[in-house]
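[step 3/7] fold_predict: job queued, chain A
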Amino acid sequence: MLKEEKKVEYLELIYDLIFVYVIGRNSSLLRELQNGFVPLQMFLAYALCSLAVIQIWNYSTFYINMFGRNKLRDHIALFLNMYLLYYIGEGTRVHWQSFQAQYHVAWALILINTGVQYFLERRNHAGDPAAQSVCSRMMIPLFGEAAIVLLGLLFGQNAAPLFAAAAILFGIVATWSLSDRSKESRVDFTHLTERAMLYVVFTFGEMIIAIASYFEGGFTPSSVYFSLMCFLIVVALFLCYGILYDRIIDRERNTTGMAYMMLHIFLIFGMNCITTSLEFMREEEVALWPKTLFLIGSFLLYYLCLFALQSRYSKPDLGLCRRVTMPVGILTVAFLVLMLLLREYPRLNIFVSVVYGFAMFLELYLYSRPNACPIPQQGSERS
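[step 4/7] structure written:
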């Protein structure tokens, strides 16, 4: 029998909007420059805060996907998380030390709230051992990560980043190692891919708002050129994800989707970094080498995650072959070399970024055509 399609509820979209606000708050951590670029401490804080917030979204999405019924209890749990996320957003500041307790308590309470939902579901599925097993496995990373987050408060401000990193790492490793890899997974992968796509779209929305600064300076040739190039970069990035989602990903796959969501954590983080790096490219007070390397690294992380998703979750008739991998590798090396060589020529530098983005889109488009590679991948189940 065909499984009933799980639709994305309107409350899930409202819930996602709070993350747009928090993404903006995370970007504020990169506004204080030292010696021409962001201090390492601030960049690490930005990375940890971004990963923590995306991970929170990931946990909530998995719960709704497997057990959400759009009932009162689900609504209360989501609204409580939204309320606590405001405290996380307000606690995300350059002088974070004064807001450390607020941030960590809110973070831990969100994890506990989500863990409690799994606990209640475990009780509700007393006659379903498989469902109880899923709930138990998800409770371990949630309550365990919450304990590490709260433990960090006991060791002072200097130890807080270490405990935050440990908490995030524990959550990723525990979730991955304890995930249900049975062929009868409870995950609705179609719904999961749609939720991930919507979060990516919201992240692109933040990127579109951020590049508005490129349109300042009047309707001059220079302003038009840079604004057009920056806009085309965003278009190319969006088209790449669009072709992946629409034509490459096998959304009917029977899978836990764990690797899919893990890759999206880093893909969305890469998108956030691209947004910030595009803003840095306009600012003369930001040193040339750091902002160029930041932009390159952000692009590479985005496309690395994109092609990892392609490799792992493509449709059965879309195989990998040298006809695809070789051009992608050559384009990436050329992009890296040209960006470094042309770092002092912003007009050429931004043009190379546009060409690289659309070239990668072309490769994805060619790959998405039927029989693009003569030998398809094995149709084995993948997590």
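[step 5/7] annotate
The radius of gyration is 22 Å.
The chain has two domains: 1-178, 183-383.
exit 0
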